[in-house]
Amino acid sequence: MTQNAPVTVAYGDGIGPEIMTATLNILEKAGAKLAIETIEIGEKVYKRGIASGIEDSAWESLSRTKCFLKAPITTPQGGGFKSLNVTVRKSMALFANIRPCVSYHPFVRTTQPTMDMVIVRENEEDLYAGIEHRQTDNVMQCLKLISETGSERIIRYAFEYARAHGRKKVTCISKDNIMKMTDGLFHRVFDRVGAEYPELEKNHMIVDIGAAKIAAAPHIFDVVVTENLYGDIISDIAAEVSGSVGLCGSSNIGQHGAMFEAIHGSAPDIAGQGIANPSGLLHAAVLMLHHLGQGDVADKIHNAWLKTIEDGVHTGDVFSPQFSKKRANTQEFADAVIERLGEMPLHFKPATAAESKQPAIRMPTISLPKPADKTLHGVDVFMHWRDARPVDALATEMKALSNSLKLASIDSRGLLVWPDSAAKAENGDHWRCRFVAANDGDKITHAQIAQLLQALAEAGLDFIKTENLYYFDGQRGFTVAQGQ
Ligand code: NAD
What we know:
Shape: elongated
Structural class: alpha/beta
Number of domains: 3
CATH architecture of the largest domain: 3-Layer(aba) Sandwich
Radius of gyration: 27 Å
Bound molecules: nicotinamide-adenine-dinucleotide
Largest sheet: 10 strands, mixed
Strand content: 15-25%
Distance between the termini: 69 Å
CATH class of the largest domain: Alpha Beta
Strand order of the largest sheet: 2-1-3-12-11-4-5-10-8-9
Helix content: 25-40%
């Protein structure tokens, strides 16, 4: 007999308690074997002055169960509060965010009747690392960090997911025509890892056309793997075109834990009315039951849910006189699913035991790339320099202070402005001065960089940041400015 699986449950804010009660009721009636620990997160906790929105006792439960079924929470407006979702994802090392987006034509109104795609989104790095700085009066910076290990982990997971679920194609989405190093790495790792999955079709799309195609022709996609920011944007597009944000669930998977939630928020506009659609959270719970090895219960619930949708029992968000027979509130919808436990859908393909018994997804083990021969050839010094004189005056000052190094170029936010530039420098305050060895191609030392910075400091110049210019195994590890 299956032991009760420990699960941490949070009822959340807004419609959270209504849809969680409905979901747990269905799970119980379907025979899910769960040992539930309830924690409090979100608005009430924030209001007690806890900036993370989660108390230490709740972490204890999560570290014990390693499985989290979470209702949506309301993120307070204003400074000081941290996003609980990002905190939980990072603290539990949930590197993969999986969002299946399916349309339920002809029972739920959608412009995309044959959509059945899964978005696998990297969850831990990219611009979401939250490393931001104000550098000058005029310029803010947000660092985009993409690692080979982070890329490989999510890409391997996507291929393993596709294989385990009998999917046929994996599409990589990036913007490597512009971000040649960060997104270029992601794309290269996709090509390298993809070669190990010869049975799967593979392709790559630039994010702009990729997003447009997801909105207009989502049926051409099967599994999509992408970086954090692009994944955030395209998965909302996909959910929206599938019919309603109230329908989709998601899983967040890590090496040592997992979190399951609806993709929508706490819907304060309809909270307390008992009319919210519990389907997104129920789908998340179905994903959780698969994760816990209770695939038979997951299928039973999924099939009853499909039959309910086919029978035209719909909550207000998907109700339409043309397609629906009964407008159900949250409780009535849950009761309709419970009544149909054990029934099979007639139109939709039922979830089957064969699919439930699919091999578990192999969690990728990733190691750091082997160390390269790394040589230092220069330094970019970013300057906060605000002066009525043209940028030539900055060049003159920098050349005079460059000691054993040589000023090679100055650019303004990536656009070359010195020397001999066709671009006219506009009145800015943020300049990148590139220094290299006096003899082109020679190596430089960290001590030479320290001497340069010392000279700039003594001259009262404000250097805001430096980036070293390395070669790795003879390959340039940095880009050149536009126009260089
Ligand atoms: P939302 O997803 O809560 O609501 C958007 C619209 O969709 C609303 O009109 C709402 O009524 C409707 N809707 C959402 N879920 C529904 C459901 N299950 N049934 C029927 N209708 C549904 O987005 P929002 O209004 O931008 O955000 C509200 C709050 O939720 C904010 O505080 C936001 O920060 C938070 N939020 C939390 C999460 C999360 O906890 N994972 C995710 C997104 C937003």
